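FAQ: What does the model actually see?

It sees only this:
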Amino acid sequence: MSDSAAVPKEPADRPAGQHAPQASIAGLTLLAMGVVFGDIGTSPLYALRETFAGAHPLPINQIQVFGVISLIFWSMMLVVSIKYITILTRADNKGEGGSLALLALISRKADVRWSGGIVLLGVFACALFYGDSMITPAISVLSAVEGLTVVEDSLQPLVVPIAIAILIGLFLLQRTGTARVGALFGPIVVTYFLTLAILGSASILRHPEILWALNPWYALNFFLIDKWLGFLALGSVVLAVTGTEALYADMGHFGRKPIRNAWVMFVMPALMLNYMGQGALLIADPSAVSSPFFMLAPEWFRLPLVFIATLATIVASQAVISGAFSVTQQAVQLGFVPRMRITHTSARAAGQIYIPAINNALMVLVILLVLFFQNSSNLAAAYGVAVTGAMLIDTCLLAVVLFSLWKWPRWASLPLLAIFFIVDITYFAANLTKVPNGGWFPLLIGLIGFTLLTTWARGRKLMIERMDEAAIPLPIFVKSAASSATRVPGTAVFMTTSAEGVPHSLLHNLKHNKVIHERVILLTVRIEDVPFVDQEKSFELKELGSGFFRLIVRYGFMQETNVPAALARVDECGPQFKMMDTSFFLARQTLITSATPGMAVWREKLFAWMLRNAESAMEFFKLPPNRVVELGAQVEI
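And it is asked to produce this:
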C-alpha cells in the first residue's frame, strides 16, 4: 500500500504466496459469482416483500413502488459499486480484505493516535459478523422453502422441518470439505442470476414504465411523501444490499478484478432487472405482495424456481459459514480468539478449512433461530442491524485509510465520506427500530462476541507481561547453566511467547530434571499482521553460545502454523532436525485471579475459562504428541 496522496496502483489480483491457485480472470469471475455474491443474490427473495408487507407496511401504488426501487438502485450504486467495489477493495492487506485484515493494515501503517479506538471498532465489526453468519442461512433457506406455499398452501407445515433438514445437512457437510461442491457453486448461481434476469425482464416488458424508477427523484420523493414511514421503510430496503461485506472479505480468494467484473457485468444488472420486475408486478397486481419473487414466475415454473432458489440459498449459506471459519482463523492468529482446532479440508487450497467448534455453535444457533422465528418475515426483523453496523464501521475504517494511509486531500475525501456516513447512519438508525422485534439478537451476539474477543486479547497481554516480569536475563542463565548442569544428547525445543528472557518451561525442566540437552532451541512463533510471510523472511536465528539458539518463526495470519515443517527448513544451527531426537517443552499456565490492577475479576475468571478450553499448543502447532513434555506454571493477573 502506498502512502502517497493518490489511491495506490492496483496490485496483481493474485498476490505472491496467496493460497488459491492461479486461474484465468473468466474462471475466477465465475467462481466469485458462486461464493461472493450468494448472500446479496438471495435478497430478492424477501427484500421487496418485507418493504411493503413487513413490520411497517407501505401502501402499494406507483409512487411508493417507484420510490423503493429507486432507493434500492441508488443504494447499490453508492454502497456496493462505489464504496466497496471501487474504493474499499483497494484497501487490501497484501491481497486480503475484510474488517480484520483492514484493521491489521491500519494498525501497522496508520498513525498511532488512531490505534486504540480503531482496534475496538474492528473487533466489534468482527463480532457483528458472527450475528450475520447465523441469520443469513436461516432467512435465506427459509425464504426459498417458503416458495412451496405459493405452489400449494397445504405445504405450509412442512416449511420449517424442510428448512431445518437442509441446514443440518449443510452443516454436517462442512467436515468433508467443500472442494467438490464448490465447483458447482458458480454454475448454480449463474443459473439463478439468469433466472432472476429473465423473470424480471418479462415483467418489465409488460410494464416498461417501471424503468422511470431509476430516476433519483423518486427516491427523494419517497421521503417527501411521508418522512417517518419512509425512514422506517429503510430498515427493509437495506436488505437488498446485505452481503456487501462478503465482497471485501472474500477478495483474497478471487482478486479484485474478478469480483468487480462479476458485479458490474452480471450480478447487479440481474438483481435490478428482478427488483424492477417485482415492482412492475406489484403495481399491476398488489395482491402479489405476499410473495412477489415467486409470483413473477408462471405457475408451471414456480416449483422449479423453488428448487433453483433453494440451491442458491444453500450456496449463500455455505459462503457465510466458510467466511465464519476464515474470520475465526484470522482472529486466532491475531490474538483475539483462543487457539481452536482447525482442519484443512483441501490439500491444494489452504483457504478451505473447517473449525468444528464454530461449525457446531453456528448449527445449533441457526436451528434455534428457525424454530424461534418460524418464518422469514419474522427473521427479517432481526436482519439488518448487524449488517448495517458492520457497514458503518467499515466507513469509519475507510476514513482512517483515506486520511492516514492514502493521504487524500480533504476536498476529495470529506464530501465522499459525508455521503457514505449519511447513508450508513440512516440505514443503521432505521434498523435500530427493529430491536424490540428481533434486532436485539444480532446485537446480543455482537456484544457477547466483543466481550470474549477483547477479554482474550487483554488477558493474554497481561499474562505475557506478568511472565516477562519474572524472566531471568538469558546471557546470565546460559553461562551458569552451561557450566553447572549435566548435558544430555538430543535437541530440546522450548516454546515461548516472548523473544526475551528464559522460558518458564526451561527453568522448570532444569529444576526438576537437572539436565540440559546438547542443543537448546528457544522457539517463538509470531503471527504478523499480514496474510502471508515470504519464506525468506519467516526465520530469525540467533546463536547464544554453549549450544543455545534463539529462533523466531513468523507466519501470516492466513497461514497454518506447523512447527515441525518450519524446523525442517532450518539448517543453520547444527545438524538437521529429526523428530525422534527432538523433545518439545511447553508451559501450561494456570491462571490465578487476583485484585491486581488489570481486568475486573469476572473478566479474569472468563479469561481463565477460555484458557482452559483453548486447544493445546501441541495440536495447534502440529507437534508430534510422543515428543511433547508439558510443565505447569501458575500466573497471577
